[in-house]
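Holo prediction. Input below; ligand is PXG.
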Amino acid sequence: MSPALSNQTKRWQEMDAAHHLHPFTTHKELAAKGARVITHAEGVYLYDSEGKRMLDGMAGLWCVNVGYGRKELAEAGAKALTELPYYNNFFQTTNPYAAELSEKLSTLTPQGLDRFFFANSGSEANDSFVKMVRFFWNLQGRPEKKTIISRKQGYHGVTMAAASLSGIPSMHPQADLPLPGFAHIDYPYWYGQGGDSDPREFGLKIAKSLEDKILELGADKVAAFVAEPVQGAGGLIIPPETYWPEIQRICKKHDVLLHADEVICGFGRTGNWFGSHTFDIAPDSMAMAKGMTSGYQALSAVAVGPRMGEVLFNASEEWSHGFTYSGHPVACAVALANIEVMETEKLVEKCGGETGAYFQKKLATLQTHPLVGETRGVGLLGAIEIVKDKKTRERFDGDVGTMCRNHCFESGLVMRGIGSTMVLSPPLTISHAELDELFELAVKALDLTARELGVL
Ligand code: PXG
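Structure of the complex:
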């Protein structure tokens, strides 16, 4: 941040340091430095309180798919706020926005996933799934079928059950997690762990760890397998093509339900409406959030297919679950407007077509950079592996991801660092000229990182 900050920025930083607990933050460190204050945003650009402009290569937190400043979404929200700012969906009541959104979603999701429970965050959606699947197996007369298997480095949220599903090691000890009934298996990170193996064989080997775990626990004890089509926060892990077909075969064979966490992959990110379309996955249920409203409102959903849906819809017992804001009219109105923008502007087709192809072409050019061991991507998701030695894939000591991220910020680009992997997930509305700018800034930040590491 610039040395001479305005009084207003200083005031905000002081208030913040004194009173605001941030997500995933070391507060001592932040207070010493002062938080960056983002005051407005337009298109693919963010602006801070000192007037600095940054290209948002992460679409917020993988969510602002239609870009910032979209009047259509603001107007739809304002209209709902005026007409029906709130009413609940308990007690045999609904609202037009929630009803219309659930029907609309049923036309976009993979076949059969036609029933939706609304919540307010990805964490709540996954937590709700955990309760749903337990209820399902109880109703089926199989109360022992309860353990849920998920993956190391998976990210499914932070509430007690969602954090138990998550497989990022730092998320567990502070809250004595995971809860009982959760198990974690290996994840298909070929570049990091596949060594010299053929990626196709590696995909099968990692998928087999699901079968091993099911057999170890007993198939009659396993309720579901939960996974992101592409692991996002865990390092943008795109599985080899053999992985998903084998996982699905194993789930079917052992009667284990498959829950796809589409919180990042959903709403166009991988070039189709859902990551399940891109990877040809037929899940029993899905979680969605983020791109559903492009982050303009807090909204998420669990979609269920016929197997769970029929049982839950036909239960004679009340499902004792739901949030004050489930199916909130304003959030649902904004989601409908967001989907309309995506359809009118053919953003999913563009991500799967010209914009995605241009992004992937530019991303691949970074492979010639002295720090870059691999780039990989799908749709408008991209990862850049920073290595010390391209041949052996040896990493640098220390947190090079944060080092590179800081150089990105200084250069005017938001790129996320996960260990030594840099990650991109820009708005789906990004133009070719803006992509040119994004990659120019990325090279600049990589050069600055290389200089700091003594490589250039
Ligand atoms: N599932 C997935 C796949 C996610 O990426 C969640 C669930 C939880 O959603 P909520 O709305 O409860 O946050 C997420 C969230 C990061 C980062 O640093 C990623 C997420 C959240 C915060 C930070 O990449 N993803």
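The pocket of PXG is lined by residues 61, 121-123, 126, 155-157, 228, 232-233, 261, 263-264, 289, 416 (CB under 6 Å). That is the main takeaway for now.
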